[in-house]
Specification:
Rossmann fold, S-adenosyl-L-methionine, Ribosomal RNA large subunit methyltransferase J, transferase, RlmJ, binds S-adenosylmethionine, 8-stranded mixed beta sheet, about 280 residues, methyltransferase, alpha/beta, two-stranded antiparallel ribbon
Length: about 280
């Protein structure tokens, strides 16, 4: 039984990190005219109304995108991401927030494609409604782990896979490693971006997951983490990470350029920290 609904969390610090990195990767794919595809394994509802009851419940966006919105012009290193949010909120007030599907949909070009997978019945309905009749977009009501492997290798052959499970089930931490292995076997040239939470000490599984990924032979693997608060002993989420397999050239520097000031801006008390590091780097 799936209970996770992303509307409760849309626009929080974890979304800011994930979506800023996602945008930078899509922008680097756009440097060549050749078409590309974005495959999103855990798509959610597509886009979110921040004034809706669910988003308002804990107003997590207030300490995420909410802290950047009024000063968005100064965040040039995150311009593609913030540009999409600006397009969606033309009156100037922050009202709508793009999920990963709407962000991709607004950033890709005429010749590009977007494949979205979502398992939850209600979320997939929202997703279909929110993606409209865009001929570039395909929505698949299916498990994103097996669905991804089944869709590979994709047409066109260049592109990005975004893997963003809710980690409600601890099996998700193993499923992502297994899926990355199977997927890379079928499509070795794809870029893979995996989001993961960093939780309090009792609950955190991200260090074990990173060790398991490091043991595999995935080639270049970059890790970018943002912890908005120091790690506590409880179960709360104090930060998150993006792990990128085969990142585009210079992505590490592009992330570093926004993550350092972002860490200072989104800090919640002392103990905030960030890192951009190679988990694995293949000699050129
Ligand atoms: N990627 C979205 C974004 O950035 O806007 C947020 C996705 S949310 C973290 C995770 C989503 O995965 C939820 O909508 C949930 O219903 C869905 N989900 C859970 N298990 C799944 C599975 N095995 N396959 C596909 N979707 C799944």
């Amino acid at each position: 039984m799936l209970s996770y609904r992303h509307a409760f969390h849309a626009g929080n610090h974890a979304d800011v990190l994930k979506h800023a990195v996602q945008s930078l990767i899509i922008e680097s794919l756009k440097k060549k005219e050749k078409p590309f595809i974005v495959l999103d394994t855990h798509a959610g509802g597509g886009l979110y109304d921040l004034r809706g009851d669910w988003s308002q419940k804990k107003a997590e966006y207030a300490d995420g995108i909410g802290r950047l919105w009024n000063e968005r012009a100064q965040w040039v290193a995150m311009a593609p991401y913030l540009g999409v949010i600006e397009e969606m909120n033309q009156g100037g007030d922050l009202h709508y927030y793009p999920g990963s599907p709407e962000l991709s949909r607004r950033l890709i070009r005429e010749q590009d494609k977007l494949a979205l997978m979502e398992l939850h019945n209600n979320e997939v309905e929202d997703l279909r409604a929110n993606m409209g009749y865009d001929p570039r977009v395909a929505v698949h009501h299916r498990d994103g782990f097996e669905g991804l492997v089944a869709l590979l290798p994709p047409t066109p052959r260049r592109g990005l896979v975004l893997i963003d499970p809710p980690y409600e089930l601890k099996e998700d931490y193993f499923a992502v490693v297994d899926t990355l292995k199977k997927a890379q076997k079928r499509w070795a040239t794809g870029i893979y971006a995996l989001w993961y939470p960093i939780l309090g000490q009792e609950a955190d599984k991200s260090r074990d997951m990173l060790k398991a990924i490091k043991r595999e032979n995935f080639g270049n693997v970059l890790v970018a983490e943002l912890e908005v608060a120091g790690q506590t002993s409880d179960w709360g989420m104090n930060g998150s990470g993006m792990l990128i397999v085969s990142p585009p050239w210079m992505l590490d520097e592009q992330i570093e350029a926004f993550l350092k000031p972002l860490c200072a801006r989104l800090a919640q008390g002392t103990g905030a920290q960030y890192r951009v590091e190679w988990l694995n780097q293949v000699e050129a």
